[in-house]
Amino acid sequence: MEYKVETSLYNFPAWQGGKDTLDTLIERDDCQAVEDLIETVFFDQDATDEDINDFLWFERDAIAEHLGYSDWDAYENGEENDEEDGEEDEFLDTNGTPIQVGDTVVWDDEAGEDEDGSMIQFKVVEDNGDGYFNIAYEGEKNPERWAYCGELEVLE
What is the model's pTM? Predict the structure, then answer.
């Protein structure tokens, strides 16, 4: 049996580490921003309760970065972003377009081509802050496929 539930993150029944993350987000009134991130990350699939809980639990640094912090510890401690000039580096694709988590991209690499040579579309799911982005095939969970910004092209 399959059923879908549409609810706010405030009402999500998280457990274990996901609950710890969610409690902090609720306390700081940041659920809406994280809901937007979750919708972006899972844009092409129906996320299960487990998917959402695992994202809350294991992607804390990505959540913190989305909220403007360097990592989860900085977010929890209320620290300012540790960049010297107060602004994060902006990493650009092959056309000079800034790359962000949630963007759809193609990868200028052999791994980014189908058997027939056509380019595969990926979703940017994580930014390591040094110009490398973790990219996922449609519907793929927990990828570890890092591509340098100069090899990616953001699709409109």
Answer: 0.53
Asked if 25 and 9 touch (Cβ cutoff 8 Å), the reply is yes
pLDDT at 50 over 50: yes
Q: Structure tokens of 107? A: 């990868």
Which residues have CB under 8 Å from 119's CB, separation 6+? 106, 107, 112, 113
State the amino acid at position 103 in one-letter form: D
Tokens of 79: 């620290």
User: φ and ψ at 38, to 5 degrees?
Assistant: -60, -40
pLDDT in tens, 121-131: 888 888 888 78
Instruction: Give Cβ neighbours of residue 129 (< 8 Å, ≥ 6 apart).
Output: 65, 70, 88, 89
Q: Which residue in this structure is represented by tokens 């937007």?
A: 36
Q: What is the mean pLDDT of residues 114-120?
A: 76
**Which helix (DSSP H) or strand (DSSP E) does residue 104 occupy?**
strand 104-107
